[in-house]
């Protein structure tokens, strides 16, 4: 995981691949957004950001309430799908 997190573009590509796999398994957008929220929660608690972009996302995550964190997770999913 640390290799994936060391470069922001690598992280986005990794996340995009996982989103594509989830869609291929038949998960809908809400289920994918919920998984992204759970992953974001894990990363926020357990993983130190490896670059400036991840640090900014973590700082936003830390100040957000649950609803705002779900929005961040959903936006990350949307971002990687458009990349």
From TrEMBL:
Protein origin, superkingdom: Bacteria
InterPro entries, per the entry: DUF3243 (IPR021637), Uncharacterised_YmfJ (IPR024702), YmfJ/YflH_sf (IPR038292)
Name of the featured protein: Uncharacterized protein DUF3243
Species this chain originates from: Paenibacillus taihuensis
């Amino acid at each position: 995981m640390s290799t994936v997190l060391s470069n922001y573009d690598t992280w986005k590509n990794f996340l995009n691949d996982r989103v594509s796999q989830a869609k291929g398994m038949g998960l809908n957008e809400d289920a994918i957004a919920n998984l992204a929220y759970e992953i974001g929660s894990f990363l926020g608690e357990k993983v130190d950001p490896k670059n400036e972009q991840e640090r900014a996302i973590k700082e936003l995550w830390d100040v957000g309430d649950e609803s705002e964190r779900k929005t961040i997770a959903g936006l990350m999913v949307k971002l990687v799908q458009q990349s």
